[in-house]
Amino acid sequence: MATGTIVLIIVIAVVVLALLALVAWMSNKKKQQRHQEAQSIRHEAVSEARGVQESQVQAREAEAKAEQARLEAQRAEEQAARAHQGVSQEQALHEEKIREADRLDPTVDHKSDDYNPDTTAAAAPAPAYDETGRRDPATTGTGTTGTTGTTGTTGTTGTTGSTGAPAVDAEGRPVDEHGRLLDEHGRPIQGSDETGGTHRAP
Known about the structure:
Order of helices and strands: H
Strand content: under 5%
Low-confidence stretches: 139-164, 194-202
Structural class: mainly alpha
Helix content: 40-55%
Number of strands: 0
């Protein structure tokens, strides 16, 4: 074999070996890159797993709060049912007392077909409450806190012939010059004594 041929074979062999080495190096490098990428994904998955655990804890806490709210609502409904039952019992007792009174009252025909006991006193609506637990003024009855405008002696004119404000006793009631109580027309009330009397004007 000629020397040139031998040299050519050696060169080709070296080139082939170099190509194989290059392919192996590139394959190994690619494997390293894929391994690093896999490791990075694993780290991200671990971080996401912590977030998932926190979300699971929050979900369990929210579920526990919801269960507690359901139990409280159930207890409130049971209390309301017991309260309504108590009201019904009290109304029944009240109606029975009214019926008993009507049976004893000779002026009431409790045996008539259209007889109906008067239980309006027990049917008065209960005051409503707002969201803060206080009575709602929109549903609270008016006129039950006093009789505005019924105090004082407005409209009386005092004793005939006298001038200025009418005389009053120690309790602020109008009296004449003899100390007798006067009615709304300025006339002495029968039965009142000289010291202002003990009877109020009707």
